[in-house]
Amino acid sequence: MSGWDVLAELAALREADLPTHGGRTLAYVYDSGIAGLGDLGARAHALASSANGLDPTAFPSLLRLENDLVAATARLLGGTADTVGSVTSGGTESCLLAVLAAREGRWDVAAPTMVLPTTAHAAFHKAAHLFGVRTVDVPVDPETFRADPAAMGAAIGDDTVLVVASAPSYAHGVVDPVAEIAAAASARGVRMHVDACIGGWVLPYLRRLGAEVPPFDFAVDGVTSISVDLHKYAYCPKGVSVLLHADASLRRGHYFASADWPGYTMLNTTLQSTRSGGPLAAAWAVLRHVGDEGYERLARDTLAAVAEIRAGVYEIEGLRVLGSPDSTLLALARDTGRAFDLFTVADEMTARGWYVQPQFAHGPSPVNLHLTITAANRGSEPEFLADLAASVAAAREAGPVVVGEDLERLIAELDPDQLTPEQFEGLLAGAGLTGGTGLPTRMAPINSLLAAAPAPLRERLLLEFLGLLYTPGR
């Protein structure tokens, strides 16, 4: 095929994807709305994509780019001359490395644990699974969804190697009381990590604009590491995240070296070995182009969009915002007793050209719709709110989505550890996912089915379905 034909085919495939620009996809992507910014990042990416971050002595340009990114992030988040960091592929890798460094830093603890609020990102449960660290999950306030400092402090034990708080939590957009939690961790000599993957690059600007942002960065005594994603509110191409440590001794645990083979001595600062220089260069170019004043303007636009959407939600009968969000994320739930299905609302919004992300019930948090609001949403708030009101009305008219008695009976009988192919096929058939290779246009019946399943079964079902999706030829 000619190069032009290949690109044309790729463009045709991309037409089925959610839009990544225009502010209509309120999860997964972050859009500044700045014309040409994506092209700048792509051109910078291309200039460095063939360089290999495995060896900084072979590609000193990448060393310079990484040090510049870490320094810029540290300046924004109250770092000192001792603050160091690493650039990773994304927030999950940054969180994994924070846990790994904490575990390796306490070689004297045979069975390490980490203390998490139940709203902490699932990346920490992944880290626990991979690195043999047991999680101690602490319930949050059922109304505000913020971590409980007293309960977090009480959960710290002699085997605790890390305490985690969010700034903000993904599910509800609230900043945990970092100062109080860090004080409790410091009193026990335990590391304190702040997951600011979403908020790290925008919360300082929101504070500068007058928003009440609780303290969360290195200005807080006891905070030892912070994760910040540049591909979120720094609006850089994916995937670039920064993991900051208060000093170099705290970072050493996630570095890796191996000379026990006949090749080169392998040295890794992150989980990866070979790393393309493309994401580094793209992020470096975007940060330099937007600049401090540019990010303040983007934060101002985002703050205005959040305020208008949040106020507008309360004008829609039956909807409310969960908790009291501190940042740029909103979780929309039904008022108690309102008879319409939120999964149907999500489908209706999709039909109107918007993507909002359904979130299942968990503890005191009911089923809700997640909104990640960016600068690109400024100016389209009236259209979004009008479509949201119409979607709620359509869901109310459609009535509840009911999982049939046969499916409910099958779900009750299933053991996630003993799930058979026949049982899985039966659930697929009941959910309307057989007889074709694509996903259905309406997801409410499937989400209702998954909501009826206990979390371990939901995990197993979705993993099996993921395996089906990633099957060549389907």
TrEMBL record:
Sample GO molecular function, one term: pyridoxal phosphate binding
Coiled coil: none
Highest rank taxon of the organism: Bacteria
Keywords tagged on the record: Aminotransferase, Lyase, Pyridoxal phosphate, Transferase
Example GO biological process: carboxylic acid metabolic process
One Pfam family this sequence matches: Pyridoxal_deC
Residues bearing the modification N6-(pyridoxal phosphate)lysine: K232
Keyword Transmembrane helix recorded: no
Cofactor(s) recorded in Swiss-Prot or TrEMBL: pyridoxal 5'-phosphate
Stored InterPro entries: GrpII_AminoAcid_Decarb (IPR050477), PyrdxlP-dep_de-COase (IPR002129), PyrdxlP-dep_Trfase (IPR015424), PyrdxlP-dep_Trfase_major (IPR015421), PyrdxlP-dep_Trfase_small (IPR015422)
Family: Belongs to the group II decarboxylase family. Sphingosine-1-phosphate lyase subfamily.
Name used for this protein in its record: Aspartate aminotransferase family protein
Organism: Prauserella cavernicola
